[in-house]
Design a protein that fits this description.
- The chain has 227 residues and is α+β, with helices and mostly antiparallel strands.
- It contains four helices and twelve strands, in the order H-E-E-E-E-E-E-E-E-E-E-E-E-H-H-H.
- Strands 1, 2, 3, 4, 5, 6, 7, 8, 9, 10, 11 and 12 form a twelve-stranded mixed β-sheet that branches.
- Strand 5 and strand 6 form a beta hairpin.
- Helix 3 crosses helix 4.
- The longest helix has 25 residues.
- The protein is globular and about 55 Å long.
Length: 227
């Protein structure tokens, strides 16, 4: 009986792998361009959201949707990298509309889905192909952020004549409402100005919210959505 269960389990795993490969092979939106594994030699730090292959999903125009694939997200280049047949492929952001990467935030917790989408109006030099992480999305608006990763050249350290280059990160928040993007900081003034809602102002005042944390802003968006 045990051997039979092991055999069935093996068959299911093989079927899942074949199905995943078949999805990748048959959909041109997910073909991608081969990329080198070490894309940034001699740069200190990491350009990746997480420097590991993680479970994910991708979707494109129409009904094109891939599940159970391995992904990495290059925050510096703003590119989704797909693992296919042991090789890395850069996906074209103009054909990809969004993706999910399941990030294990701690060893004793279930992986958390990090949802990214593009297609938003241009803002702060970001075009419509730029990906934003979606913290909350509803019919009345969306709360987003984008991690801006830049290369920073440090002065040579003592005893060295070589400048050291490293990745520097900065998180920038946005509110999408009524077809427009609003750059905001985590504070009550910026958030309420972007929302331009008497209901939001009343809810914040009633609950004595400072809106200095992501969780508070998400709570506010959820409340507005139910009003």
């Amino acid at each position: 009986m045990l051997r039979l269960l092991q055999f069935i389990s093996t068959i299911l795993l093989v079927f899942a792998a074949v199905n995943s490969y078949a999805q990748i092979s048959n959909v041109t939106a997910f073909d991608g361009t081969p990329v080198k594994e070490n894309r940034y030699p001699n740069v200190k730090g990491s350009p990746w959201l997480v420097d590991a292959w993680l479970e994910g999903e991708i979707w494109a125009e129409g009904e094109q949707h891939l599940k159970n694939v391995k992904l990495r997200y290059d925050e510096y280049a703003d590119e989704v990298i797909l693992l296919k047949e042991g090789k890395s492929f850069r996906l074209n952001p103009t054909t990809i509309k969004g993706f999910v990467i399941y990030v294990p935030e701690s060893s004793d917790m279930e992986a958390k889905p990090y949802v990214y989408k593009n297609g938003y109006p241009e803002v702060d030099g970001n075009n419509s192909s730029a990906f934003y992480r979606v913290l909350y999305e509803g019919k009345k608006g969306a709360f987003l952020y984008r991690t801006k990763v830049e290369l920073f050249e440090n002065a040579p350290t003592y005893g060295s004549a070589v400048n050291e280059t490293s990745f520097v990160r900065k998180k920038r928040y946005y509110i999408y409402k009524d077809g427009k993007m609003h750059a905001v900081r985590l504070n009550k003034k910026d958030i309420l100005k972007a929302l331009n809602s008497k209901e939001a102002e009343a809810f914040v005042a009633k609950n004595k919210m400072k809106l200095k944390k992501e969780e508070e802003v998400i709570q506010l968006f959820a409340a507005i959505e139910s009003m």
